[in-house]
Specification:
It contains seven helices and eleven strands. With 271 residues, it is α+β, with helices and mostly antiparallel strands.
């Protein structure tokens, strides 16, 4: 019985983290389709423009896929499924039949429990603000090399977050933004996103400082009990950084499947 309870607890925790990830990186528009969450954000990031299977529906998968495709066609977007290890359904066979390509951009969702790894201030020149300001966003847009249209979509997406937010920046000695991180707190979990460092200031501890400041803010100001973040499975540098920050538990993995006819460049590559 204890092993069954432990399994149920791990599933419950993984689903809480999944909710934190969805709320921490929302979409501009959503449609609920018989247990599937369809997200639309003008193509800015696959997470905000894909389908998550949150609970089993009553329709046959092939019928459900066709219905979802009609909505994405209406929005001028490719139909992309975000298939997580905590997804409510296994529709791999139906996607094969419908002409979807293999999984891409495999991503790990990592978790840090503050009960065992309490955030500590590190004295770095990192600041956290609860609202999006021009300095943070302009640095974010510059590091991501956004076009004007992509920047407008990104700003709208940040503005769509409905839970408490923190925007961290680690400053270089001359006062320029060296590293950024964004966090959104839901149900005691802060979900981290948009971690980026200016190439000029890499390997100087700025990303570590920005993330650590954000974790401390989430704990002290928002009562967070843990933190999660997505990282590409093949991003060895990023995973090494997150290990140093005590993100030691992998709670889930996800990847994307899209219609073969669509080019991978159709949607931004942020996981």
């Amino acid at each position: 019985m204890s092993s069954v309870m432990a399994l149920l607890r791990s599933i419950t925790d993984a689903r809480r983290v999944e909710e934190a990830c969805l709320n921490g990186w929302p979409a501009l528009k959503t449609i609920w389709l018989d247990g599937w969450l369809l997200r639309f954000s003008h193509g800015h990031t696959k997470r905000a423009n894909s389908i998550s299977l949150l609970w089993p529906g009553t329709r046959q998968p092939r019928e459900q896929i066709r219905s979802a495709e009609a909505f994405y066609t209406h929005h001028g977007l490719p139909t992309i499924f975000r298939l997580s290890s905590v997804s409510a359904q296994d529709i791999g066979g139906a996607l094969d039949e419908a002409g979807y390509g293999p999984g891409e951009d495999e991503t790990c969702v990592l978790y840090r429990d503050f009960a065992t790894a309490r955030p500590q201030g590190n004295g770095s020149a990192a600041l956290v603000r609860p609202g999006l300001d021009d300095i943070w966003f302009e640095a974010h847009a510059r590091l991501q090399k956004f076009s004007a249209a992509a920047a407008a979509n990104a700003r709208a997406l940040f503005g769509a977050v409905a839970v408490p937010t923190g925007y961290a920046v680690s400053l270089a000695g001359d006062g320029r933004p060296a590293s950024l991180a964004f966090g959104a707190v839901y149900d005691g979990i802060v979900c981290l996103n948009a971690v980026a460092t200016d190439p000029e200031f890499r390997r100087q501890g700025h990303a570590y400082g920005a993330i650590n400041a954000l974790l401390a803010w989430a704990q002290d100001e928002q009562g967070a009990k843990g933190a999660c973040l997505p990282v590409m499975a093949g991003n060895d540098i990023g995973r090494s950084l997150y290990r140093s920050l005590a993100f030691s538990t992998e709670v889930s993995r996800y990847s994307y499947r899209r219609k073969v006819a669509w080019s991978p460049s159709s949607v931004a590559q942020d996981a």
